[in-house]
C-alpha cells in the first residue's frame, strides 16, 4: 500500500477537475487577449471563472486577480502595499509561511519598512491585546497574519483581527492558502483587505492562484508587461488552470460540510489511534475542531535520537508525509514554525505533519499507525 498524507503540501488533483480542464487544452486555442473568435472564447472562460470565484467568496469580480499561486499572491499584496500605499510599518509573526516571512524580511533589510514581530504561544496563537497595543502606537500599518498555519494547523480569529485593524486604519493581509476551500468566505462582511489562494491546495491544478484585493485599495502591479488582469498582473493567462481552479473551488464549497466532516473524522481517528498505540506521542499546535484545520495533525514522536530519520523510514514503509512546509523540504534549519512556538531542535526533528485529503481512508490511517509501531518497535499487548 502507498499512502499519501501530505495534502497540505499539495492535494490530489480531482479527476473531475482534470476532465473539466481538458477541453481548454484540446479544443480552444489562441491568446485570450486577441479580439478574434478564438481569443474571445478564452477571455469569456477567464471572466466566467472570475465571476464564479467572486460568488464563492462573497466578492465582486473586480476584486479577484489571478496569479501563479499563493506565493505570488502573498508577495503582490505585501510588496505592492508598501510600495503603493506608503506604509512603512509591518506587523506579523515568525511562524508565517516563508512566502510572507521572507518577503517581509527583505523589505526590512532594504529599509523599506520597520517590522514588529508579535509573540505566539506554545500552540501558535497571538495575543490580540499585544496586536492592539502595537497598532495603537503605529496606526496605518500592514498586518500580515495567516488564517491557519500550514504546519501546525492552528487557526486565527480572522474577524477579530480584522476589527482591530479597522479600528487603527491598518491594512490587513491574510494568507488563506490552507483555508480556501475549507472555509466559506464572505468578504463583503469580513474586515480583511487581501486574501490569497492556491488551487493545488483544494484539489485543483498547480501553478494557479488568486489574490483578493478589497475594492478601493489602489496598489501597483508586481509583474510588469502586458495589460492583463486589468493592468495588475502581466502575462498571458493560463486559461485551463483558471477554469480548473474555479471548478475545484466550487466543488469544495458545494460539498463543504460533508467534506470537512470526513476530514475531521480522519484526523480524529489518527489522533486517537496514535495516542492509544504510540506511548508518549504528543501534538504540536492546536488540535480542537473549532480552532484548527481539519486537514493537519502535527505529531511529535518520542524517539531518543534527533537523527531518527523517521520521515525516511515512513517513506520506505509506503507513507508520504512531511516534517513541515514542503517549501522548506531539505532545510538543515528545521521547521521555523515549530521553533517559533518554542519547540526544541530535537522535538522539531521528531515531529511529523500528517495532512489529509478527501481521497484518504481510515484503512490507510490504520496502515500508517501499524507501520509507525514497527518503526518505533512498539510492543502491542497480547
Q: How would you sum up this structure in a few lines?
A:
This protein is an alpha/beta fold and 382 residues long. The protein folds into 2 domains: 130 residues, Aspartate Aminotransferase, domain 1 (Alpha-Beta Complex); 240 residues, Type I PLP-dependent aspartate aminotransferase-like (Major domain) (Aspartate Aminotransferase, domain 2, 3-Layer(aba) Sandwich). The protein is built from 13 helices and 12 strands.
Elements, N to C (H/E):
EHHEHEHEHEHEEEHHHEEHEHHEH
CATH homologous superfamily annotation of the largest domain: Type I PLP-dependent aspartate aminotransferase-like (Major domain)
What number of domains?
Answer: 2
Q: Order the strands across the largest sheet as they lie in space.
A: 2-8-7-6-5-3-4
Tally of helical segments:
13
CATH topology of the largest domain: Aspartate Aminotransferase, domain 2
Residues in β-strands, percent: 5-15%
| Class from helix and strand fractions | alpha/beta
Second-tier CATH architecture of the largest domain:
3-Layer(aba) Sandwich
Separation of the first and last Cα atoms: 26 Å
Helical fraction = 40-55%
- Extended strand count: 12
Average pLDDT, rounded to a whole number, is 95
Please mark out the parts with pLDDT under 50 across 5 or more consecutive residues, or reply none: 328-332
Q: Given this structure, which CATH class of the largest domain is correct? A: Alpha Beta
Task: Considering the chains and any ligands shown, give keywords for the structure.
382 residues, alpha/beta, Aspartate Aminotransferase, domain 1, Aspartate Aminotransferase, domain 2, 7-stranded mixed β-sheet, 3-stranded antiparallel β-sheet
Amino acid at each position: 500500500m502507498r499512502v499519501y498524507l501530505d495534502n497540505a503540501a499539495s492535494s490530489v488533483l480531482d479527476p473531475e477537475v482534470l476532465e473539466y480542464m481538458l477541453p481548454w487544452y484540446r479544443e480552444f486555442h489562441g491568446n485570450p487577449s486577441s479580439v478574434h473568435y478564438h481569443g474571445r472564447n478564452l477571455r469569456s472562460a477567464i471572466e466566467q471563472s472570475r465571476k464564479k470565484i467572486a460568488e464563492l467568496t462573497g466578492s465582486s469580480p473586480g476584486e479577484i486577480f489571478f496569479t501563479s499561486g499563493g506565493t505570488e499572491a502573498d508577495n503582490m499584496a505585501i510588496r505592492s502595499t508598501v510600495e503603493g500605499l506608503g506604509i512603512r510599518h509591518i506587523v506579523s509573526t515568525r511562524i508565517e509561511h516563508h512566502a510572507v516571512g521572507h518577503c517581509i524580511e527583505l523589505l526590512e533589510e532594504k529599509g523599506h519598512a520597520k517590522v514588529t514581530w508579535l509573540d505566539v504561544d506554545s500552540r501558535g496563537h497571538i495575543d490580540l491585546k499585544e496586536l492592539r497595543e502595537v497598532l495603537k502606537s503605529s496606526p496605518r500599518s500592514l498586518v500580515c497574519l495567516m488564517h491557519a498555519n500550514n504546519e501546525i494547523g492552528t487557526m486565527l480569529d480572522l474577524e477579530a483581527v480584522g476589527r482591530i485593524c479597522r479600528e487603527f486604519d491598518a491594512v490587513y493581509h491574510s494568507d488563506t492558502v490552507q483555508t480556501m476551500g475549507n472555509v466559506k468566505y464572505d468578504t463583503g462582511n469580513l474586515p480583511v483587505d487581501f486574501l490569497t489562494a492556491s488551487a493545488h491546495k483544494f484539489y485543483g491544478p498547480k501553478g494557479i492562484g488568486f489574490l483578493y484585493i478589497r475594492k478601493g485599495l489602489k496598489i501597483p502591479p508586481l509583474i510588469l508587461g502586458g495589460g492583463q488582469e486589468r493592468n495588475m498582473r502581466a502575462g498571458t493567462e493560463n486559461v485551463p488552470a483558471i477554469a480548473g481552479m474555479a471548478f475545484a473551488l466550487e466543488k469544495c464549497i458545494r460539498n463543504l460540510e460533508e467534506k470537512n466532516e470526513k476530514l475531521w473524522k480522519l484526523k480524529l481517528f489518527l489522533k486517537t489511534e496514535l495516542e492509544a498505540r504510540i506511548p508518549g506521542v504528543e501534538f504540536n499546535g492546536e488540535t480542537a475542531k473549532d480552532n484548527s484545520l481539519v486537514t493537519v495533525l502535527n505529531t511529535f514522536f518520542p524517539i531518543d535520537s534527533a537523527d531518527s530519520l523517521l520521515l525516511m523510514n515512513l517513506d520506505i514503509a509506503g507513507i508520504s508525509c512531511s516534517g513541515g512546509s514542503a517549501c522548506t523540504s531539505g532545510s538543515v534549519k528545521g521547521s521555523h514554525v515549530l521553533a517559533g512556538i518554542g519547540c526544541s531542535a530535537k522535538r522539531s526533528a521528531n515531529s511529523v505533519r500528517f495532512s489529509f485529503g478527501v481521497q484518504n481512508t481510515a484503512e490507510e490511517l490504520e496502515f500508517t499507525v501499524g507501520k509507525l509501531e514497527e518503526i518505533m518497535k512498539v510492543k502491542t499487548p497480547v
